[in-house]
What we know:
This protein is an alpha/beta fold. It has one domain: Rossmann fold (3-Layer(aba) Sandwich), CATH 3.40.50. It has six helices and seven strands; from the N terminus they run ααββαββαβααββ. It has a seven-stranded mixed sheet, sandwiched between helices. Helix 4 crosses helix 6 (166-172). It is globular, with a radius of gyration of 16 Å. 40% of the residues are buried.
Amino acid sequence: MLRPQGHPLIAAAIDLVMAPMDRLRPRVVQHARGRTLEIGAGTGLNFAYYADDVELVAIEPDPHMLRRARARAERLGRAVELVQTGAEALPFEDDSFDTVVATWVFCTIPDAAGAAAEVARVLKPGGVLLFVEHVHSDHAPARAVQHAINPAWKQMAGGCQLVREPVALLEEAGLEIRDLRPWGGERWTVFPMLRGDAHKAP
C-alpha cells in the first residue's frame, strides 16, 4: 500500500489504523475464486478471509509491510506466494488470474491508471477484480475539504490520496463495473467508500 521504501513505524501502526475497516474485508475477500492476486497486500490483513481452496499470490512494494505479511501468513498456516513489487508492472503473464483483490489500494499507487491497466491484463477473460476504495466525494463542500487536506494527508498516510477516481480508472482500463455500492456513508462525506466488482469481458 505504500511506496517501495516504506517505513517500519508505519508498517507497525497500519493494523491499528486500518482496524475500522476490518468488518468489511470478509465481504470483499470471501468472493475470491481460483488463482487470485491481491495487490497492495500490506501486512496481510485480508489473508484470514480467503477460502481454503484459493491459490493466493500477493504483491506489496513496501519491504516492512511484506515482512509482516509473511509472518501473518505463517501464523495463519495460509499458503501465499508473496512478491515484492508494485502494481504498475506486474511480473505475471497475461490472462493468468481468475480474481484480483484490491482493498484501499488505488488511492496510494503512484501510477494508478497504469495499475488498473495491469490488473485488466493479468485477469483471465471473464475474471473479476473485487475492490473497496475510498473515493472523491460527490458533494462540492466535501470535495473542497478533500482537496484542501490532500497534500498533508498524502504525506502523513504514505502517499494515500483523497481525490482519486478509481472507478473511472478501472472503466478506462476496459473493465465493466458491476454491483457498485457505498459503504460507511454516502458519497457526500469527506471519506466516502465504494465497493464493487470489475469484470473483464469473456
